[in-house]
Design goal:
23% strand; 245 residues; alpha/beta; D-Maltodextrin-Binding Protein, domain 2; 13 strands
């Protein structure tokens, strides 16, 4: 009887430890093909979002775990409870606010337009010109995808799993331009000869952290930590580390 009692107590203790460990973990979902916000260095996901998330987790006394997934899987993973939050250069939109809450903004993004150096597309106005039929490459489920589909219709928007695939389609002539966030655009153009970024931008937007609608307690904690990190200059220092200009 005593042995059974000891075994039961040990099992309860182990369960308690496991629950405690779970409570001390902050799981972030991202799409690690979005430099400089999230990308791989060897086997490790690094970047602006990864470092800001780590700083938030440290302030909350939690251990950060980052899970890499398709961009369009992040919000469903939040709503299903698979992850605690999403950080992937994610913009607040009315559509997304139907399924998740967002933190205060921590960075500003620009939707840039990548074209071939000899492209007939000289500015964003050319995409809106009467009779224009240019095919636009985007990363699916991003704001580039959402905005372009709204502005130009499904027929003119070709969606790709990752930005790199959209850029490859531009190089091979399958699309006429790529609309994607400015910082990844800079990285893609630097890595691919014969491409350039137009001076005129497509859109401006603010990045924030996505959290489940019902998880207001976590959202409040994230906001409190994030506001402290913004106030003390930590967020600015992290951004400047990756974006020199």
């Amino acid at each position: 009887m005593m042995k059974k009692l000891i075994a039961l107590i040990a099992a309860i203790c182990m369960l308690g430890c496991a629950c405690s460990a779970m409570a001390d973990t902050l799981t972030m979902g991202t799409n690690a093909s979005f430099p400089p916000y999230e990308f791989y260095e060897a086997e490790t996901i690094v970047g602006i979002d990864a470092e800001i998330a780590a700083a938030i987790a440290e302030k909350l006394g939690m251990e950060l775990v980052i899970e890499d997934m398709d961009f369009n899987a992040i919000l469903p993973a939040i709503t299903s409870g698979k992850i605690d939050m999403g950080m992937a250069g994610m913009t607040v939109t009315e559509e997304r606010l139907q399924s998740v809450n967002f933190s205060v903004s921590y960075a500003t993004g620009i939707q840039a337009i990548i074209v071939k150096e000899d492209s007939a597309i000289a500015s964003v106005d050319d995409l809106y010109a009467e009779g224009a039929q240019y095919i636009i490459g985007v990363q699916e489920a991003t704001t580039g995808d959402i905005y372009c589909t709204d502005d130009f219709g499904e027929a003119r928007v070709q969606k790709f799993k990752v930005g790199a695939d959209a850029v490859e389609a531009l190089k091979t002539g399958k699309v006429d331009c790529v609309i994607i966030d400015n910082q990844p655009a800079i990285a893609y153009v630097a890595a691919n000869e014969g491409l350039k970024i137009l001076e005129s931008t497509y859109a401006l937007e603010d990045y924030a952290i996505a959290v489940a609608l019902e998880n207001t307690e976590l959202l409040d904690k994230i906001n409190a930590a994030l506001e402290e990190l913004i106030e003390d200059g930590t967020v600015a220092a992290i951004v400047e580390k990756y974006i020199k200009e």
